[in-house]
Amino acid sequence: MHHHQHRHQQHGHPFAQFIRPFFGGWRRPKHNVPMNVEDHGDHYKVMVYAVSFDKADIKVSVLNDQLIIQGTRAHDTANDPAFLLQEYPLKSFERALPLSQRVDTAGIVAKQENGVLILTVPKKPEVVVEVS
Predict the structure, then answer these.
(1) How far apart are CA 123 and CA 45, in angstroms?
(2) What confidence tens digit (pLDDT) does each residue in 33-56 have?
(3) How much is the pTM?
(4) Domain that holds residue 112
(5) Domain tally for the chain?
(6) Residue 101's domain is classified under what CATH number?
(7) Minimal CA–CA distance to 119: which of 23, 52, 29, 50?
(8) Residue 92 included in any domain
C-alpha cells in the first residue's frame, strides 16, 4: 500500500491533473507578445505589449469571431545578436482572441501608447426582453 502511494507521487506534478484539461492542447508560439484583456463593463480593453512595433506595422482584423492582431516589420536577421534568451519577436507576431457575440466589431478603436497597442472593444448593448 505504502509502496503504491510513493510510486504515484513520483508519477507527475501534483497539479498536473488540474492543469492538463485546460492547457493540454495549448502550445505557446515560439515568439510572441504578452497581452492583457480587461473587462470594463460596456467595453473590453486589450493591451498588446508589442514594443518596437509601430502602429503602422500592426494589423487588427476580425475573422470567424476572433480578434486577430498581427505585427510584421522589416527586420534584417543578419544583424541579430546571439540570443541566450529570446522571449520577444523581432520580425512578426500574431495573437488571436476569441470574441463573444456581444462584441461590436465595427467599433473597435486602436491606439498606441509607449509601445503598447491599446484596443478598445465595445460591447453591444444587451437586449432586454421584458415579459409582460
Answers:
(1) 11
(2) 999 999 999 999 999 999 889 889
(3) 0.66
(4) 31-74+84-126
(5) 1
(6) 2.60.40.790
(7) 50
(8) yes
